[in-house]
Amino acid sequence: MAAPTSPQPPLDFSHHFSRVTKGRQANSLKKFYRFFAIPGIGNLAGGLPNATFFPYDTLEAQTARPDRWQPSPNEPSNITRKLDSTSLETPDTSAASHITVPHLAAVTDPLQKIDLTTFLQYGLVEGYPPLFSFVRQFARETLHPNVPYLNGPEVILSCGNTDGYSKVIQAFTNEWTPGRDWVRERESILCEEFAYLSGIQASQPKGLQVVPVKIDTQGMLPSGPGGLEDILANWDERTGKRPHLMYTVTIGQNPTGSLLPLQRRKELYAICSKYDVLIIEDDPYFCLQYPSVPNLEAAARGVPLPRDPEVHTLPKKSGFPFIDSLVPSYLQIDTDGRVIRLDTFSKTIAPGCRLGWITAQPAIIERILRITEASTAQPSGFVQAMVAELLIGDQPAKVEFMRKNRAEQKAFRGWKVDGWVRWIEGLRGSYERRMTRIDWAVISKTEMYNFDWPRGGMFVWVRMCFDSHPLASQVPGPEISSTFWVYLTQEPNLLLVAPGQTFCPTPEIAAEEGWKFFRLCFAAVEEKDVELCSERFAHAVATFWTIKSKKELEDINDGFYDG
Amino acid sequence: MAAPTSPQPPLDFSHHFSRVTKGRQANSLKKFYRFFAIPGIGNLAGGLPNATFFPYDTLEAQTARPDRWQPSPNEPSNITRKLDSTSLETPDTSAASHITVPHLAAVTDPLQKIDLTTFLQYGLVEGYPPLFSFVRQFARETLHPNVPYLNGPEVILSCGNTDGYSKVIQAFTNEWTPGRDWVRERESILCEEFAYLSGIQASQPKGLQVVPVKIDTQGMLPSGPGGLEDILANWDERTGKRPHLMYTVTIGQNPTGSLLPLQRRKELYAICSKYDVLIIEDDPYFCLQYPSVPNLEAAARGVPLPRDPEVHTLPKKSGFPFIDSLVPSYLQIDTDGRVIRLDTFSKTIAPGCRLGWITAQPAIIERILRITEASTAQPSGFVQAMVAELLIGDQPAKVEFMRKNRAEQKAFRGWKVDGWVRWIEGLRGSYERRMTRIDWAVISKTEMYNFDWPRGGMFVWVRMCFDSHPLASQVPGPEISSTFWVYLTQEPNLLLVAPGQTFCPTPEIAAEEGWKFFRLCFAAVEEKDVELCSERFAHAVATFWTIKSKKELEDINDGFYDG
């Protein structure tokens, strides 16, 4: 065993920055901010409106208590039956707190000052101090206590992960135009063979080449044909620069629902380190990991329970058994400082937040801060105020707070880190139970389709066996597939699912493999409808497989195009 | 007089789009949205969390009534005394409404549905329907009823004007790197000789050359040396492409406080049309126009009152005398469709909103929508919900609303367009009175500094006459200027002002002219401090001009660098 070494500073990755990003400079007006703190100073410098003129005197909300949802077990090694499968969950909205962001808070500590005078004024690019410091501490001490490089990572708030990804791409890629720029200058980005493509598609007009890496049920393959090492070792420079970026969703992978274990992470990371690839880890579902699934799936399929569950041992603990039980981020093995992680409140609070954060080594965060100054400036103060008040809570010095009786004061407290962890733990429980309500176990034994139960996230990735369809010899597979998609939307099936082609990084994958898959999301529909929809799906497949004439297929599409 | 012609479609400006912007395509997942509306459809397609799991049961606020602030006259032709100069304004916060955004609203009309199930879920890129339609109608019918091209402009919400500017620059400029790209490909942007540079500086790393246009007390000069025509007609293509973009703040120009009259607009627009320049009109202060100023200033200076005030006659009226009295946007004379206007709620609601909108011809808005999909996705649902509830208000069908008594129901109504116009009219009144509290009339007659009273916005642009300083022959002007800036921050002066160099688009202007100016903002300090600060400034100048030894100047800077 190697002797423990003292932490080293992260590597210098400035050679990865784009030309534009290298040239960015700090906003010249920002240098005056330090003078704002001179006592009694008359600030005629900033172009700020007066807070008196904000038309909001308070912002308020009824909010859930952190224990609204029931957690599921962290280590359900002996669970072989569905969790709570007989009762639907209804929230106890009577157990709620009322939170208030006042116009002016009496506290002077900027880390505690949550008021409209601050949060509705121009703010710091990295975030208003109370929320920024909460998120920073949560990222550094709770989510990622093991980041190996010296002094750990820095964070900056983002407007959600689409925005975060867009800024990271700005930071690390140059525009490239076919016919104008040298092919050898074309940049590339690695991603999973089936991937969440909204961000990637958005960066394709910049000339970025997308390079898929083969996956299995755990995620990217480190070795073997089409695996990461294979692609990087055998890269043909005549087609463009070897990829220096990887985009990956490792937990509840979208669309396949897989979970990348620690051991596999280490193998992939070592290859990225060898070939100098930066890792963009987009992790919206980090808390939605379903440890009950391996056993439940085995039980449903009537196969032996899996032995030796994956172990995720890391030296430092977060202090929260739930967090410690989760597969860790790439950050926790990031000796080089090459991981840029994207977090969002979209799945843990609400997508409408448009609020998240980016975690990476400080020199990278500094460049992203410059990009933020030049674009979004900061996430809206409205969402920052409401989330800060929810997570951090009213401070005892507030006049309104002191007027309340003791019981009310207790109810008014913010969630704090404990409450936040309890909330996401409850969310995991709810989504895990919801997922296990899918009633397809028996049907997955048929020849018509198959799937792995998702190990995390919100999606089931269904592989259709269209070659077993009665018309398979007469109608091309992709045509049967698109007709089946239309068939699903029609009476009595009434189901909307996402076609596999949507998740194919290249036209080749779409043509060869994409049409065989559909992604089904079990998160958005009402819980009572999860079973209903899965039954509808099973029924639709069964009836679709009874279709024996091409005319019937054509009629389905006719109805579609008329509508 | 020419016969009125029927409206023509806007011109095609696709040749202005950047290479990346031309290549953008619609998000491939968005095409499924139309299926979401099928009755009874089980939506397993979108990767949406369930609204049940949002931890907010309501969002609420105490909000001002629209008549909180007193308007000032629209046509104060006979005003020669300061407005309300003896009493400070204090808001009547008891006259407030309580607004509530419920978790689920009973209304089905998407234009009226303001609830958390909608606004905290993923939304449409252009904005959630109720707020988007309010803003669109306000822009098309109230603010700009005269846009001359066929069918008028389109709008899209932005995350404020920094974000809006960043997107417009993405739409219309290509990256350019010195030493790598041909000089002839370098793009340029026109702006005022003294300008708000945050956005422009942010786009300089993209290689964009900044080209200043000479200004006078009204704004850009159409003709004469350094005027717009002079620059464009005599452009030297060897230094890069002739500018195809203009960035301009025409109302309450930042930093000079000028107001570009309609006649001047027409002259500048004709030149832009002749040389195919797109106009980016950044207009955060559109409602802060101060018609009392010409008379007040003349009275204070003891000169004859100005005759023949500028007239802004346009054929269609908004229905609001206040709006009709304002200098109109470039949009209202935009026959070609070459104006891209940036609006923000930063100065009319609060900067922390990070919410605004872009108005331009539909084909331009469509490209900006594609850029938005790939970056911010949408402004936060929290601010959209709170602003929608403020402006549009609770709908009668809501259960909570029906439970209230009649008086409460009245108090709960949203502002509607009438209320919104009344609010910004009151804001204008408050800022106009606040500005006239500046007590410099008599001092402006001295030789030490001079300025024009601002015709709009939040700033006074003060020109210092450092050549009248006792040490002018021994110490370079820029050095006296920077020492004076430090002197202002020290006891007993305690003033922070923005140095003129901060607003200089080129190093040459900064070196030759910038150091002679300071920008003073009267908006941010408390109203009672406006007079105090102006007195402090006058006193600081007077005492600074008594300094007769270089040693004293050096001592001032010493203290600064120690601090």
From TrEMBL, chains A, B:
Annotated region (Disordered), positions in chain: 64-91
UniProt KW Cell membrane keyword: no
Keywords, alphabetical: Aminotransferase, Pyridoxal phosphate, Transferase
Pfam families: Aminotran_1_2 (PF00155)
Ranges annotated as biased composition (Polar residues): 71-91
Biological process per Gene Ontology, one example term: alpha-amino acid metabolic process
Cofactors (names): pyridoxal 5'-phosphate
Annotated GO MF terms: pyridoxal phosphate binding; transaminase activity
Ranges for domain Aminotransferase class I/classII large: 206-405
Residues making up the signal peptide according to the UniProt record: none
Family per similarity comment: Belongs to the class-I pyridoxal-phosphate-dependent aminotransferase family.
Protein known as: Aminotransferase class I/classII large domain-containing protein
Species whose genome carries this gene: Oidiodendron maius (strain Zn)
